[in-house]
Amino acid sequence: MSNKPVICFDTSKNERFQISDNYKMLHRKLKVNWNVEQNDAELRKERLARVKVFVLAGPQDRFTEDEFEVLKHYVEVQGGSLLVLLGEGGEPEFNTNVNFFLEQYGIYINGDNVVRPHYYRNFHPKECIVGGGVVCESMWRHLLKLDIEKVDYDFSDEKYKIHFQYPYGATLNVSEPANVLLTTGPVVYPFNRPLAAYFTNGNGGKILALGSGYIWHDKYLQDKTNDAIFEYLLKLLGGDEITYSHLDFNDVELSDNKHFTDLAFLADMPKACLIDSIGTEMPTDFKQMFDMKLCALSNHLLKEVIDAYEQLHVKYEPLRIIKPQFEIPLPNLQLATFPPIFSEPPAPPLELYDLDETFSGARSQLAHMTGQCLQALQSKEPQRRALNQRELENYVKECARITAIVDERQDMAAREILNIVARQIVSYRPYAEDAPVTKFLATFFGPISRNRIM
C-alpha cells in the first residue's frame, strides 16, 4: 500500500469543480505526492478517518446537520484539514449552507463578487489581477523567493510585486479566531477585503476558505503565481512545516464591508423631480406629474406629410425594403485543393507487331512460312529431317489461314482442309491465279498454269 497522504474531493453535493472536468491539471499535480480520492456518498466519520485533506470544491447542495457534525469532528478531534472553495454570489448563487459551519470559526463567504475597474491583462472585469493581495508576511516573503512573475516597479512594500489571478470570486468576512491570508488589495473592488481565511487549532485541525474556486481552474492554474500559491497552501494544509505567529498578521489592512447599490436597476426606475413641488400639494397618483405628451407616438401629421408630396411635385410611394449590398473586401474563397494530374497514355507497343507479316501479301506470307519450315528441317539431325504429324498439321492450318480457305476463328482439322482443297480442284472451271486454292496448291507444286491443270 502506498505511503502517500490522502486528499479527498467531495462530489456528493454536486460540486461545481471536479478533478475529472475542470481540475484536470490540478489532479495531475496532486497525483505526484498524494493519493487522490473522491467521495460521492454521505459524509461519515469512518470515511474521513484516513483523509489528510478534505476538499469541498464549490458545493451546490445543502449539508445536513449530521454532516456538519462529521466535519466538526474531523477538524477538532481527528486533526484533519478542510479546504472550502466557492465563487461569486456566495451561498445564494451556489444554493448551499456551508457558511453555517464556517461561522463557528470566524469565517463567512459573502454573496458579492470582485471586479477590476480597468483593463489589465484579462478582458473580463471579473477576471481580476490582484496586486498586493498577499498580506501574510511569511507567505509573501516565501513567494518572492520562487520563480514567479514579479512586477518590476519601485514599490514601497515588496508584497506589491506579487500579482495573482482571482477570477469570478467573492469576498469574505473574517474574525477571530481565523486569520486573513489574501485580500483584494488597493486596486480591485471592493478595496482591501479578505479573499482567503485560515483557521487552526491546537489539535492540528485546519480550515482554509477561499472565495474563488476558479483560481485553480485549468485555465488559470497555468499562471506561475497561482501555481505557487496552490503549492504553498497545499503544504500549509498537508503538513506542519509552516507555522504562523501574530507578527505575520500585524500589517493586514482591511476595509469595512460596504454594499454598493445596483446602478443598472436604479437607472431603469422612474425618477421624479421634487424641486417644483415645494409649496404645492403632491397628487395622490404620482404618474400625473409626468408629461406624457413629450414622448408620444401618433399619426395625426400623416395627412400633412402626404400633402407635402403633392405640393413639392414628388411622387408618393409606400416605403419598400432596399435590398442591401454588401461590400466584399476580400477575394472569393476557393477550396484549398489541387486539380488532379492525369498521366499520359503510353505509346502503342509497335515493336510487338511483325509489320512484314501483317502488311505483306498472301504469296509473301506463304513463302515466309515455307522458308521457316525448310529452315527448321535443315537444322535437324540428318536421320530426323522428316516432318512429324503435328508439324505438318500446323503447317497446313497456317497455309489455309493465309490463303483464306478457312476463317481465322474456325478450328478445322488438316484432313478437312485438304478435303476442301481436293473438292475445289475437282470442281475447278476457270483459271484464276488469285483464287485461294490456286495459292494453296502453288505452295506445294509451284506456279500452276491452266495447261497443267487440264
Short structural description:
By secondary structure, the protein is of the alpha/beta class.
Write a concise keyword list for the protein shown above.
11 strands; elongated; single chain; disordered C terminus; 454 residues; 7-stranded mixed β-sheet; alpha/beta
**Count of DSSP E strands?**
11
The low-pLDDT segments are: 448-454
Based on Cα principal axes, name the global outline.
elongated
Number of helices: 15
Strand order of the largest sheet: 2-1-3-4-11-10-9
- Summed over residues and divided by their number, the pLDDT gives a mean of 80
SSE layout and pairings?
Elements: E1 6-10, H1 24-30, E2 35-39, H2 45-48, E3 53-57, H3 65-76, E4 81-85, H4 90-94, H5 99-102, E5 107-109, E6 127-131, H6 137-144, E7 163-167, E8 172-174, E9 179-183, E10 194-200, E11 206-210, H7 224-238, H8 263-267, H9 302-311, H10 355-359, H11 362-379, H12 389-402, H13 414-426, H14 436-445, H15 450-453
Parallel strand pairs: 1-2, 1-3, 3-4, 4-11
Antiparallel strand pairs: 5-8, 6-7, 9-10, 10-11
Helix pairs in contact: 11-12, 12-13
